[in-house]
Amino acid sequence: MKLYYSPGACSLSPHIVLREAGLPFDLSLASTKTKKLADGSDFLEVNAKGQVPVLELDDGARLTEGPVIVQYLADQKPESGLAPKAGTMERYRLMEWLNFITSELHKSYSPLFNPAMPEEGKAVYRARIADRLQWVDSQLAGKDYLLGAQFSVADAYLFTVSNWSGYVGIDMSGYKNLAAYRERVAARPAVKAALEAEGLNK
Ligand SMILES: N[C@@H](CCC(=O)N[C@@H](CS)C(=O)NCC(=O)O)C(=O)O
Fold first, then answer.
1. Which residues form the signal peptide (predicted)?
2. Which whole-number Å values give the CA distances from 133 to 12, 126, 179, 180, 182, in the listed order?
3. Which of 74, 87, 123, 175 is the most exposed place for a label (fewest CB within 10 A)?
4. Residue nearest (by alpha carbon) to ligand 1 atom 20
């Protein structure tokens, strides 16, 4: 398998999952700005949406959309416990989290990276993110991970997205449960290895 990624972008989530699952993979660097790969070839040929992550399977098939990719990866290694079994209520709880993270958090952070977004617009998104993070913080009370004691693909995604806070001026000091959770996730060997491979300190 090959993961097309950009350092620190949402592709860090499937990158962490690949390592957590112990699956063999290669990384291919894609620029989300120039839409070029490291060898100068056209990333739009790989994904016409011009976005990471893209997972390329060994038969050449390509899968896009992070929340789907991480479930595909988890299902390749059910014994990893990274996703509850398909069809169970627990699996729907996982999908509930993935959908929340993608629609309420990920796509609220995205405009903060957009130079074309005016400051007044950014303030609206910052307030929205603060509101959602407050709720996430409440949900983490007394829990190690989003689904409870077991680390799941939703944790890889929440860790990745909440990691952007420092870059876009989101104050995280008010979220004590989230802070402890982020430390817990950051301490996992697979997470450390993924961050290091992408050239990120933490
Ligand atoms: N719906 C996609 C969104 C992916 C996405 O937003 N990727 C960003 C990086 S975090 C990207 O490639 N942005 C470049 C662009 O949109 O042109 C998913 O969930 O995978």
1. none
2. 20, 10, 11, 14, 13
3. 87
4. 65
